[in-house]
């Protein structure tokens, strides 16, 4: 067995009881659950879950709202630039041409 050490933490009694029930239902003790958390944090070099000021539903709603707004801005820019009717082949061709132009510029040709 690996060399172990004790860790003392303070929890609200009700929170501890709820955690014991949840982790017990998952077949583990609170100690095991904390060990799993710490192992994942060490392995990932971060807290292994998202921490946010809003709930998941609110975060997703905000992210979707931001994505929709970004999509609308992209669409409006494509309309203004006259590229809203381009096919994917035309877009690919423009990208290839821009890359070739940049490569040529870098080579000093």
List keywords for this structure.
109 residues; 2 domains; 4 helices
Question: How would you characterize this protein structure?
Answer:
With 109 residues, the chain is mostly helical. The protein folds into 2 domains: 32 residues, no CATH class; 52 residues. The chain is 68% helix and 0% strand. It is built from 4 helices and no strands. The radius of gyration is 27 Å and the shape is elongated. The model has no long low-confidence stretch (mean pLDDT 82).
Gap from first CA to last CA: 67 Å
- The parts where pLDDT drops under 50 for at least 5 residues are none
Q: Count of DSSP E strands?
A: 0
| Count of the domains | 2
Radius of gyration: 27 Å
Approximate strand percentage: under 5%
Structural class: mainly alpha
Provide the residue-averaged pLDDT.
82
Helix content range: 55-70%
Shape: elongated
Question: How many helical elements?
Answer: 4
Q: How can the largest sheet be summarized?
A: none
SSE sequence, one letter per element: HHHH
Give a short summary of the structure.
This protein is mostly helical. Helix content is 68%, strand content 0%.
Topology:
Elements: H1 13-25, H2 30-44, H3 56-81, H4 88-107
